[in-house]
Write a structure and sequence with these properties.
Number of helices: 17
Oligomer: single chain
Number of strands: 18
Largest sheet: 8 strands, parallel, barrel
Strand order of the largest sheet: 3-4-5-6-7-8-9-10
Radius of gyration: 25 Å
Strand content: 15-25%
Helix content: 25-40%
Bound molecules: 3-methyl-2-oxobutanoic acid
Length: 605
């Protein structure tokens, strides 16, 4: 069996994988590798320089571009709606993280999306981040002129704009969804890629949707045609998460070996997680020659989600040198924790406690044996350290906060926890912290993170809670009095009865806000142990005159839902804060629609 040496590790080659002799490192050994392990399995890679950006070429064959689609594929998952300001915050955070390409949205889906992508292109697409990094800003478009025009209208303001256009290529999609023949699909793809180039976009990505279930021969043909038409990146989506790693890696290797002109473009992966294989498939694709991977923060996305940025990046960082052919990314992993937290808060999609890398338990060691090992040497049970993702262990922090602590101590503590805040955000957090510290003796890191989420990760306020007073118990109906402040500083007071204190308070809020909504979900958790724990609430609402958008893949109109979170030691206050947060988010959309004179409830497409 042939073998090649990468860095100082020997790999054996899978004879079934087609091999590009021009660039041995691009051929992947990962599907059948036999790594020689160094004495200490733990490896810390240093961040190397990011190669200069040319759409269809990467000077370093080991560099993997990170294409983040949290704001497009991620945001279209149910309940994940973000406001324009939230999207801008996330885009800034992605740029800080070092993401190479930010897919900022699907501009043809709604006026709100178009505006958000435009804003991101102007602001983030012209910003200069760590080490001079300027991210590419990308907009999604179906293969039609209107979508492509909208995408270009939004992304053209960025220094490095990209249009990503797609059409389905599997038999099932072509027959039942598109009702088009193979030839028609090829012609559509070819002409629309050419059209995107003709309007001035020099960076055009093409995706054959459902490639994982498409006939490989047909893929080689259509991909060859779009390369001739000017595509610079070819993305291979496993749209329904159907493939397994060996199969997906082989598909990438086969495309690399059989597509005319492939050496002039970048191959990309886009793996959905329906079988829980998205990270494994993405790595198999990268090992087989893909040099762009499409991922989302926390793995959010359609159905079971996408490959998660943090898993793919940390797998490359942790094992890249040893067993993944020396592949590396330009991500500054120290920003992973805060990015995950921001996306969790803004989308309202909670990260499961045992989620790899960013779950609350990812670095928790509960059993006696593990704790003993950890105390003796951290590497006994940790293959990456929490500090690598910007998470600092509570026990290592010298700062203990109490009611006499000042702003500076709070700021330093938050920085230790990965939150770099200042100015008004720090002031707001400080006053919330003070009011909790008056009542609660021990303020834990989790308490601070909950307050941070409630205070800082909130949508622009339209309504703000000033006071709420409830009476409840078994003797009669609960009653609530609520005082809200509107955006002009005016006070509004109302009272209501309800089946319980939260129901009464929500009804009182409704009497002021006067926007009919349905409460779809309500959940509450105690952040820490004990009777004085902070309660964290999450709600999901939908406006009765629902805000709609067009779904990128199905083309169907869907109703947007809006999430809100709140945190307080008082469960009713926590609940009302969450409800108002969700209402504020919905109202931001309403304002945006009004700005564009679209009637509420209309599909803005
Ligand atoms: O899942 C998919 O196929 C997509 C494409 C648009 C890349 O999201």
């Amino acid at each position: 069996m042939a073998s090649i040496t990468a860095t100082n590790h020997t790999f054996s080659r899978n004879p079934n994988i087609s091999f590009n002799h021009k660039n041995p490192l691009i051929h992947s050994q990962a599907l059948n590798f036999k790594p020689s392990f160094p004495k200490h399995a733990l490896i810390r890679c240093s961040i190397r320089n990011r190669p200069e950006y040319t759409p269809n070429h990467i000077p370093d064959p080991n560099y993997i571009r990170i294409f983040d689609t949290t704001l497009r594929d991620g945001e279209q998952s149910p309940g994940a709606t973000m406001t324009t300001k939230e999207k801008l915050d996330v885009a800034r955070q992605l740029a800080k993280l070092g993401v190479d390409i930010i897919e900022a949205g699907f501009p043809a889906s709604s006026e709100a999306d178009l505006e958000a992508v435009k804003l991101i292109a102007k602001e983030v697409g012209n910003g200069v981040y760590e080490e001079g990094h300027v991210p590419v800003i990308c907009g999604l478009a179906r293969c039609n002129k209107r979508d492509i025009d909208k995408a270009w209208e939004a992304v053209k303001y960025a220094k490095k704009p990209r249009i990503h256009t797609f059409i389905a290529t599997s038999e099932i999609h072509m027959k039942f969804k598109l009702k088009m023949s193979r030839d028609e699909v090829v012609e559509k793809a070819r002409s629309m890629v050419a059209y995107a180039r003709s309007i001035g976009c020099e960076d055009v990505e093409f995706s054959p949707e459902d490639a994982g279930r498409s006939d490989p021969e047909f893929l080689y043909h259509i991909l060859g045609e779009v390369i001739k038409a000017g595509a610079t990146t070819l993305n291979i989506p496993d749209t329904v998460g159907y493939t397994v790693p060996s199969e997906f890696g082989q598909l990438i290797a086969d495309i690399k070996a059989n597509t005319a002109g492939i050496e002039d473009v970048i191959i990309s992966t886009h793996c959905q997680n329906d079988l829980g294989l998205s990270t494994a498939n993405t790595l198999a694709g990268a090992c087989a020659g893909a040099r762009q991977v499409e991922v989302t923060i926390n793995g959010i996305g359609e159905r079971a989600g996408n490959a998660s940025l943090e898993e793919v990046v940390m797998a490359l960082k942790c094992r890249g040198e040893q067993v993944l052919g020396g592949l590396y990314t330009g991500i500054n992993t120290k920003h992973i924790h805060i990015s995950s937290k921001m996306v969790e808060e803004y989308t309202g999609l909670h990260v499961q406690p045992h989620k790899a890398i960013v779950g609350a338990n990812a670095f928790a060691h509960e059993s006696g044996i593990h704790q003993d090992g950890m105390l003796k040497h951290k590497d006994t049970y940790e293959i990456i350290s929490p500090e690598d993702i910007g998470l600092h262990r509570a026990s290592e922090s010298g700062i203990v906060l109490g009611k006499l602590s000042g702003r500076h101590a709070l700021q330093s503590k938050m920085l230790e926890l990965g939150y770099d805040i200042e100015g008004k955000e720090l002031d707001d957090l400080f006053w919330r912290f003070k009011s909790v510290a008056e009542k609660k003796k021990k303020i834990t890191d989790d308490d601070l993170i909950a307050l941070m989420s409630d205070e800082v990760f909130q949508p622009q306020f339209v309504w703000q809670l000033q006071n709420v007073q409830v009476t409840c118990g078994s003797l009669g109906l609960s009653t609530a009095t609520v005082k809200l402040i509107d955006a002009d500083g005016q006070e509004h007071i109302s009272c209501s009865v309800g089946t319980g204190p939260v129901d009464a308070a929500y009804k009182a809020v409704d009497l002021i806000v006067k926007v009919p909504v349905s409460l779809l979900e309500y959940s509450m958790n105690a952040v820490t142990e004990g009777i004085d724990a902070i309660a964290s609430t999450r709600v999901l609402i939908r406006g009765e005159n629902g805000h709609t958008s067009t779904h990128a893949l199905t083309g169907e109109t869907f109703h947007r839902t809006f999430s809100g979170t709140g945190a307080d030691m008082d469960i009713v206050i926590s609940s009302v804060r969450a409800y108002i947060g969700a209402l504020n988010k919905m109202m931001s959309f309403r304002k945006l629609l009004a700005k564009h004179n679209k009637p509420e409830g209309s599909a803005v497409v």
